[in-house]
Amino acid sequence: MTAEKNSAAVNGRPVWAEISLSALTHNLHAIRDFVNPKSEKRAAPRKVLAIVKGNGYGHGGPQVAKALEKAGSDWFGVTSAAEGEQLRKAGVRKPILALTSFWPGEEAQLLKHKIAPAVIRCEQLAALESAAARRKLTQRSVAFHLKIDTGMNRLGIAPTDIDCFARQYEKCQHLKLEGVFTHFASSEVFQGPVASQTREQEENFHRAVARLRTLGIDPGLIHLANSAAIATRPETWADMVRPGAILYGYHPGYDPIERRAEAEKQLPLRPVMSLRTRIINIRQVPAGSGVGYNAKFVAERPSKIAVVAAGYGDGIHRSLGNKGNVLIRGVLAPIVGIISMDVTMVDVTSVPDVVLGDIATIYGPDGQDSSNVLPANLVARSIGTVTSDLLCAVSARVPRLYLK
Q1: CA–CA gap between residue 275 and residue 376 (Å, rounded)
Q2: Is 5 a residue whose pLDDT tops 50?
Q3: Going by DSSP bridges, is the β-strand pair 325-328/75-78 parallel, antiparallel, or unpaired?
Q4: Is position 404 annotated as part of the catalytic site?
Q5: Structural domain boundaries, residue 98
Q6: What is the mean pLDDT of the chain?
Q7: Active-site residue identified among 53, 57, 66, 147
């Protein structure tokens, strides 16, 4: 299906995001196969918890979750009870984990929609137990996961609080510990001062899990590996892995940078999103004339400047002004001047046969030639940010077209 045919479904302002469900499914299967090598004999295959928080990294949380459930995802990771409820209302039936725990008052919503929260402080057990008792639920029917802070110093109980957790858990009749996890702070870093942090976190985590077992508590599913660890640290795969950015087609940045090429070769991925717009105006600009706010771009030659119908209000990072490019007719055309909320100016002097209405790909595969790609991770690195920043920034006013 061509970009022109898909864009016909967009009514009004011509800016849209194409979401390739086939690429998404490919990435899920590639990840599952990668963490379950045929040479390894396990009693049960490792599970995959697909991270769909942040509106599915900008791709549409409920929509991608439905596609991933059909493709075989075992679990889903969201930020909050509200995000989990959106998935349930869309028809998702697989288990959901609220990764950043819950705020007082969210307990009823979690229980109603069977969303397992992460417990990050010992005292949360009492609140969850009280909510379960009020709903008169059966014993050990409310699943939760315990998050252990192994060195990131963000969320989770400290390993030294395992005994405290065990005492509180013993008092709970309705709760069931279904899994224990941690989050790596630097799993993509293999050199420099923090290169050893991931190994230290892993060791801290396994000591904490061993203490749970000593206290007679079954930890359930063990999961540690985020995107970078999935691609490069097989010793962290445990019982379940949690792909985020790689699910949507992009490896994270590695240190040293050579690791990225190695990871991309071992685990090939396909970009899922293409952010597109159209040229809505073209003008000839004489040499010496300024373009856009504050004349931050001044033409050094007679130039053909196109205006595309997308700006920072749609998700084009404002810092790409005078730095970034878009793909038009297979040619990289420089973004010029300050990016506006609703439009962006592009120098199309070198684009042959450019006309009003041509498609501009902001990132992702080119609409005319899918082998020609402007990768979001390269765009992100050019402005000193991460791929997820760009993907999550695609605003709600941009229609998503889901392509099979």
Answers
A1: 10
A2: no
A3: unpaired
A4: no
A5: 21-266
A6: 94
A7: 53
